[in-house]
Amino acid sequence: MLRASDLYDLAECAHRLALDRALPREARAEPDTVARLLLEAGLAHEERVAGELGWPRPEYPAGNLAAGAEATRALLARGVPGVCQGVLVDGDRMAIPDLLERRDGASALGDWHYVPGDIKAGLTPRADQVLQVAFAGLLLERVQQRAPASGFLVLGDGRREEFSLGEVARITRACVARAGRIVAGEETTEPFLGAACARCRWRERCVPEMTARGDLSLVDGMTRARRSLLVEAGIRDVAALAEVDAEAFARRHELPFGLTALVEQARALVRGRPSDPRPLDEAATWPHGLLVHVESDPLAGGEPCLVAWRPVTAPPERTAHMLLVGGEGARFALDALEDALAETDGPLLVFGARAVRALSRACELADLAPEREIRIERRIVDVRSMLRRARAFLPVYRYTLDQVAAALRGEPPRHDIEAMPLFARRVLAGGAGHEQAAACARERLDQLADVVRHLAPEIAR
Amino acid sequence: MSASGERALRARLLRFLLRERRAALADLHETWSLPLAARVDQGDAIADVRPVARDDEGRILLAGRFDTARFRAGDRLRLGEVGGEPPWNCPELVLVGTDPIEGTLTLEVPRWDGDPQAVEELLASRRPLRLDRGDVDLSDLLRRALDRVFDADGALETAARALLDRRCAPADDPAERRTAETSADRLGALGVALDAPQREAFVRGWSRAPVHLVQGPPGTGKTWLVALLVAAQAWRGERVLVTAQTHLAVDNVLFALARLARRFGRPVPMVRVGPKPPLARWAEAGIPVARSARRVSFPARGGLVVGATIYASLPFAEQPAFGRVVFDEAAQIPLPHALCALLSAGRWLLVGDDRQLGPVVVSREDDEAGRSIFAHLREVLEPTLLERTYRLNEALCAFPSQAFYGGRLVPAERAAARRLRLSGRTEDPFLRAVIDEPAGPVLVTIAHRGCRTHARPERDAAVEIAAELLARRGLPAAELAIVSPFRQQNQQIARALRRTLGADAALPLVDTVERIQGQEREAVIVSLTCSDPEALSRDTRFLFSPNRLNVALTRARTRLIVLASPHLLDTLPRDHAGLRRVELFWRLFDELPRIDGTKRFAQ
Questions:
Q1: CA of A133 to nearest chain B CA: how many angstroms apart?
Q2: Strand positions, DSSP E, B386-507
Q3: Which site among A170, A278, A382 would you substitute to test the B interface, given the most B Cβ atoms closer than 10 Å to its Cβ?
Q4: What is the pTM assigned to this prediction?
Q5: Dihedral (CA of A180, A184, A187, A191) sign
Q6: What is the pLDDT of residues B515-547, one digit of tens each?
Q7: Which domains, ranges and CATH numbers included, belong to chain A?
Q8: Which residues of B touch A256 (CB under 8 A)?
Q9: Bridge partners, B564 (sequence order)
Q10: A232 touches chain B (CB under 8 A)
Q11: What is the DSSP letter of B575?
Q12: ipTM score of the complex?
């Protein structure tokens, strides 16, 4: 049976979909705490929205999908304003959309028809969510003999996003067909280390397997297409990649991409220690800079929740932090950050594009005047991109702050190090509060300070 | 608009301008920090240029290889010694033009802020020189325009703010419509054949309604219609400012006006403000030139057409003297930039097509403040769509019409049946299928994988098809274009084509989609290049941009050959907008006749 949720798995990792069908349920790993919390928050949001609508749900014995589909069809035929958790089944395909909403316009049901919708806790519609609604639309078409023109998502902030199903019809059919092939065992899949692995139910199986055989996906910058071209050219694992002469090999095999960075990254993994960075001219100003970190809250749709800073050369005790609570809180925090910036003429050092975006979002929440926002923005230096510029290759699977800092401490690479955001880890460890925020702020800035010192050792001296 | 609404809008526009400037500077410094070879490779520098002479007007002629550089006439460049001072310490020159046959570049020292002495010292040094991309800083000017629109309380400023706030109901006065229709009939009597949508655009553009939008898809006679409308308005005694973001767009309208005036034997009084050199062509066309907006003298009575870029138009705001401003290519003008010309009159005609490539934004593409004034206004004002294309034949028109214009774009009779005329024939079944058999578009699928910005199989296919068309089937090089979204792919195609055709052969245009917008050719080869779905999934905005696809597909009159890997379609985007973009490519693959070129080029 192909389910709508399979399209979510397909978007995350096709191999997960294959393992779901091939292996017993009890072999799956338990969801981590953040995943559980996210699930709980999602369900609570669903209950709230559905409760406000007050639409009926089909009644059927648990697990009896045929009965559920029949009960749903009966509700739809009555012309109720909407149905919550309706069951749609067509042969070996099944979906339970959160909502089916009545619209005017004739169908096999009467002078009305329905359109599918889902309730999601996030703030922007993801592709897989749209695909799931579109999939439900295909099944609904069989029930009412009319293709629903649109579908919708009710988002975490209550906004409703309606979209044309015709505008995603071909890609939906292609994804459904591919998911069907995988489920039927007609298409083989392979594990590939990616962001989805950290919370995957099969992480305890795939990741050790990939690590043991030195899978090429462990190399940062690899894609599936690149991996398959390398395997065809005779490079099967990280160790082999680390051995090649990058330019000559790429030329000989007419590879459509440069190998230099991939080979350097493979060598760092094999060596198990960071390469020496090339000196950066711009690092001359860093001793006068400010380390800044903005933490995002995954339980609040990824909104920034904490901003922390301290001068590069200051001891950890001088770490300042503020929680970003509402627009007023954000304004207050950014006022303080600007005061700190005014005391130095160096850059504002952050790690990664996500932190830069979070800082920009904090400015937006604070409704900062454009001149002030730009004054902050123009001093930002992304230390992660400086790692690239300095051609500093580290034994990490991905260049996240956690992994980079761990590598600089001499720890071996891990795939799951970012499975739970630091702030969430801290909050879960000791309950929400300033003590946890302070500890989180300090830990993050310590990590950032390590990276900055690696790139500009003169700071340490 | 409430005071707080105005403040918020002003802040959004200002934030956009500041971010753009910051991003442009960062980009420039990043480029300047690269080694010279890398700058040359990405088209941002020309190495080993040497002075050869001065022309009659005292401008500098430099010789060098500039075929991969992406400089355009009017660009500011930095002149330095190879291995000498970094570009930020080098003097500026303005590129006047290039002569590909002689292999020379013509440059001049900027009139107001140049450093002629430093330039002369470099030219006299006898050492190898280099030219680097320079800096263009419009931020002060744009900031002044913003302040002017939002800080003053005159009638024009209030009207402009109402326009920006999109409080502008379209007005249709029946009496005025009758007058406009009479005028259109009069043009008909003079032998001007307007098709129905052009006539509607003419009638609505003629009216005294404050704002009107005309959408001109590819090849629909937009420039000609604008010229006609502006001429008619000037003849009835109106003063009209014709403005656009680029010199080229302003020039196109003014030269079309000059042609109209000759055709009707009735002069159109006009002035071109601050044109790019060479100035001789303006004298030849009989169009007077004014160095700046302040030097334009308006006649006490009668009409006048003034042509100026939006940036050169700002001084007109001090003493508005026009009845109307016509923005050409308005779908490429970012909203805050349009403010420079907005206060020149209280009535605005905006002509453009927001289904083609929009403004170039370097900071954040998703910033609403950076979208075009045309796109901003069309959310509340339905434009008059010019529905008849005189460029695309019937088969070429079908897909863009359905995909981008709701099926409303139709080929004019004389364009619909047009076919590519070539000499001889080929016995090669693949080339026959690609070149001779289909009437319009054809999709050649080549199943390569893992390519990002260059793809050898597509390069080989493009070169083989182009060589057949040019060397054996008699298509002039000027009637062929090869287009890829990626400059690296274009460079490789151009080099391979040069090797195949020989050093003396004329080459077709090989360039990016951005560069070919506004141009047309008899035949066009499009190389989509990329075949790494995972890399594409991260950001679908560039390659899968519907506007970029529209421009690429609508340059050819009779034959379009699209080269692509089917692995493109394995892209699974992360957001809803991305899904819609990729869906369009699924549709392209479904609807275009397909030929598999994998065996020939990728195995």
A1: 12
A2: 388-389, 410-411, 441-445, 480-483
A3: A170
A4: 0.90
A5: positive
A6: 888 899 999 999 999 999 999 998 899 999 999
A7: 2-183 (no CATH), 195-271 (1.10.150), 281-455 (3.30.420)
A8: 448, 450-452, 454-456, 531
A9: B445
A10: no
A11: B
A12: 0.90
